[in-house]
Amino acid sequence: MNRFKAGLKHNLLILIGLILSLPLHGYEFKSLANEHILAGYQRLLETTNKLNYSVNEFCTKNSKNSLKESRFHYKEAFNAWQSIQHIRFGPVQYLSREYRFELWPDKRGTVSKHLARLLKEDWANKDKFKLSEKSVAVQGFPALERILFDQNLITEKQCQVIHAITENLSTMSAGIIADWSEGDTPYINFVANPGSHNVIFESDQALANQLLNSLYTQLEIMATQKLDRPLGKSIDNTKGKQAEGWRSQTAISALYHNLQATRQLYVLVFADNLTPVLEYRINHTYQQLEKSLSRVTMPLKSAVADVTQRKHIQQFRRQLSNLKRLVATELATELGLSLGFNSLDGD
Amino acid sequence: MGINRRAFLAITAGLLVTGPLYCRTTERGICFLSCEQDRSGQHCAYLCNMRGETIFRWQLPARGHSICVDSKGEIAAIFSRRPGSYVWVVDLNSGKILRKIDAAAGYHFYGHGLFTADGEYLLCTENYFESGNGVIGVYQTKQKYQRVSEIQTQGIGPHEIKLLNDQTTIAVANGGIHTHPDLPRIKLNLDVMRPNLSYLDINSGRLIEKVEPPENWHQLSIRHIDVATDNTVAIAMQYQGRRDHLPPLIALHQRNNKLQLLRAPNEIQQRLRNYCGSVVFNRDGQWFAVSSPRGGLVTYWSKQGDYLGFHDQPDACGVGQSGNGFLVSDGTGRLIKIDKKLAQSDSIKLTDRSWDNHLIVINKPDRISS
Questions:
Q1: Triad B305, B306, B310: Cα angle to 5°
Q2: Could you give the 3-state DSSP secondary structure of residue A305?
Q3: Residue of A nearest to B182 (CA)
Q4: pLDDT digits (tens, 9 = 90+) for A188-208
Q5: ipTM value of the model?
């Protein structure tokens, strides 16, 4: 009898162990594809369309008021980009689109260099000016920001360039959406239905790995590129101009949108598959991160050199490290996923 | 006596390396060399015995890529990862850094190279980035590794190079992708790229033969190659086109023949994810291994082009000869030995590091009796 009981207990333990080790929920990718990714690109298209319209208005009227409006729409479109920037696979990679949207960080000052070169060119025939055939560096947000926010007087030639940029941004957004949802092999089919018939994601695990990499890579870029670089080694050695979008003062809102986007991705794909303890810890860390970021009220460029503001940024940076660790080790282990090293960026 | 500051730094840096812990007689002097990234993000190169014990460790200024060794197994060159700024030449007996070579102005390194058989020259693949022309920088070993000349590789983006058995012909994998350091990581010519495999005479720089993938697969970047004892070249490629195309990724070539494109069975071919890492022939040159880190597997092929099988190893990339089989490293720190039956015969894991793309196994004759 005792033996039987012991056996029962043993079996029960195995059963519990099995239940705990299985994914609680299973992956569901359709809502991710539609509500997160496609919706993100839709927003990018809408905002870049409005930006394009507004810049066109500004360039024809050239009033101070319409410049203000263009700047507002720039920020809206840039935020929309920041909310979908973490998806670094699929159609955004076709035709180097991700770099054409935003070449950043720009350690060698390529945007300035290539923009100056472009402005020196003589376009006798207006129709001949085709931005999508120019350097990647002059096609995106950084080149646009440089003209739109650097001064209040914008020349006709500069107007030609910024209008070409905004037109190109909206064309690229439409192109990404078309590649995701139209044609013989719309990319959404690969993301919505992983499985052995799928030539890109042969299993749920393969797609989950890709998404884990997207999530982690974005957290890593936020930490090391978007924060560590402007923070510098100490308060006496800050590098405010290394902040993303310092001219338009969009660095903090960029971080905010990155944070929200990674959180939504995490919730849609991973949260339901984790043990409640880990789910709680990650959720809690996200809450802390939001709180710390809301305390940064100055633009990042000057906040890094302000004693109190810097402390808030550093706290945010530490919490980001926690989140990175939770994602890279605990989440990956619980779900049997791996971040990869050699598989991440080849050579 | 003229010890300049640079030489002094090189010497003192050399003294900081770990060691010397000699290869053990039981391992008959077999060691391996590989670059890695440790858990704090530092980049190093290691010389280890086959138990994974460190003999020498060199801390590198930036991420490394591959390592080549001279024919005597005494000197190694550590290549920085593309777009690389340095090549370090190290002494494998003392661990000393013999020379730190900086990329010449207007050039960067591509991550691979080799010593000529007579040990007179170190050849490094390089990008002359204004024009995008691929070149091989020729460095004279006895003249403090001065860059004495260059050879046009007859293509863009030269990556791995290997000597043929006449010791004067090299095979060059011209990847075909134009990059410029002003636009890091951006591939500038994907729509028109034409990769090729070129055979060059190293004395005259003359082009002997050039083969390209067929027109419809012009985005198949030829990146890594190995040469069997009979000069058969095995090729591992990376496809730059859409992910839902499934081109062949592995090929063989014999001089004056067409490229022989190989495919694995469908379910395996699909798992390669259009990306191959390293390719290495086994010791007797009868079969070869190709790593596919994105798919987490290594496939095996006969010299005739038959698919032999595979083994699963997440994030596997570095492959070296081991016995008559292979040693395969990965980003989790694992090293797995594969014997000629494609069975895993041994494995070690060093959890403090991620082994980087390439690995080379060397047999140091002077250590056999030590």
A1: 115
A2: coil
A3: A110
A4: 999 999 998 999 999 999 999
A5: 0.84
